[in-house]
Amino acid sequence: MTQWTLDPETRTTEPASLPKMRGENVNVFYGTKQALFDVNLAVPEHQVTALIGPSGCGKSTFLRCLNRMNDTIDIARVEGEITLDGRSIYDPKIDVVELRAQVGMAFQKPNPFPKSIFENVAYGPTIHGRASAKADLEQIVVDSLRKAGLYEEVKERLHEPGTGLSGGQQQRLCIARAIAVAPEVILMDEPCSALDPIATAKIEELIDELRENFTIVIVTHSMQQAARVSQRTAFFHLGVLVEEGPTSEIFTSPNDKRTQDYVTGRFG
Amino acid sequence: MMTAHIVASFDDELAKIDLLITDMGDLAQTMLADATRALVEADLPLAQRVISDDVVMDARQREIDERCVALIAKRQPMAQDLRAVIGSIRIASDLERIGDLSKNIAKRVGAVGAGPMQRRFSHSLSGMTGMVGDQLEGVVRSHVTKDVDALVTLRADDKRIDIQYTAVFRELLTYMMEDPRNITACTHLLFCAKNLERIGDHATNIAENAFYMTTGRQLPADRPKTDETTHTGS
Ligand SMILES: Nc1ncnc2c1ncn2[C@@H]1O[C@H](COP(=O)(O)OP(=O)(O)O)[C@@H](O)[C@H]1O
Ligand SMILES: [Mg+2]
Q1: How far apart are CA A123 and CA A134, in angstroms?
Q2: Helix B44-75 vs helix B8-40: angle between axes, to the nearest 10 degrees?
Q3: Which candidate in B13, B72, B78, B212 is best for mutational testing of the A interface (most A CBs within 10 A)?
Q4: Has the ipTM of the complex gone over 0.85?
Q5: What is the tens place of the pLDDT at every residue in A94-118?
């Protein structure tokens, strides 16, 4: 019975484990248009945090703040504080390339390089100098493919093009590519929106396994997916973080009327 | 107050489930009242009607189950909708049990028999039936009107039924000690009293579920249950 709800006393707004990342008073502008308003959100370590909300509410914008991908958009301006292990990632001393290795990303459409499966995964560790010997590199590639749940399917054809894989396999290849540089946090922006239900199920299972070694933030437009894969859920609406909490609460008894309307399919 | 769903048929499906619950609630109240009346008035045809009403009750419950299962599969309800569906399944099952217990009372009408003594004995159950009936009526009504304060009060009121049950138990025991010829009828009536007490417990479950459906919160854990009959007559 208790799995549908929690005692009033156990309701909490504080995440269960230490925050790996934290955004404080985050405001983002594209030119003069403000896309995020004073967002405060902690991302707890070794948990999956899901960002949900209607299209255009700022989910991807917030996700991109977490590894400074917004830097690549000329008109984007980010204000506020974003920390990784308590350290500001906007600190001038931070090496952005190194940051993006620590905070990796997988996108909506799988985007393998037009190279072999092996090279796709080996690329990151090579440029980051993670592998000194060829044998080390091979080990990293195999380990990463294993962790991404892809190795068994591709071990016979590591030197064939990554673009020849199915959509779901390509997405897991991109996740292997992110894993290969030993990140601490993995960001995923609607990673299943181009996949069929079976490929989606495999990615969801993978996300659950990855949680053991990584901290994960996922943007998803599927509420059922958020309910299945995440431990915490944050609901955004019109650039505002409306409500954040344990996933089980957000989907059974959210506090805010806007969250209720959105998760129950009542949004106008 | 409640915004409509983007998909209008979703609202219709939920409304239909609500309607079936209300129907079951009405039928449960009728069955309970008829069963006790049949007992007091030794009215076998009325008892028979309660027994056949139970078939209707079972069918309603199955229909609610099927509709809820289909709705979950089709719509994957969330938040208050999810609570409504899960809560409806549970309330329907409590109402169905109330139907069963009323039927069990009705089935004893023949065994208790007719006559002035039987009338006197079974009269002791009338007061308890009134209490249980009020409780059931209040719970079903407050569920429909989403009156959470009333639900909390009704839930606490169940202890009055427990106390009444103990009183009936003692009374029937006294009749049995007065004259061993009373034992058969009074034993059957004791089972009936126990059934009434159980109906009160199901009404309490309904109050708890209805509270959860509306608020998303669980009422604090079990209130202490008083069953003093274990210490009586020894
Ligand atoms: N590169 C961009 N240039 C200008 N405006 C943008 C850009 N990216 C996003 N926006 C605007 O910012 C708002 C939030 O967008 P986004 O973060 O992509 O939302 P979501 O991921 O929730 O759909 C939207 O109004 C969108 O039009
Ligand atoms: Mg987006």
Answers
A1: 13
A2: 160
A3: B78
A4: no
A5: 999 999 999 999 888 888 999 999 9
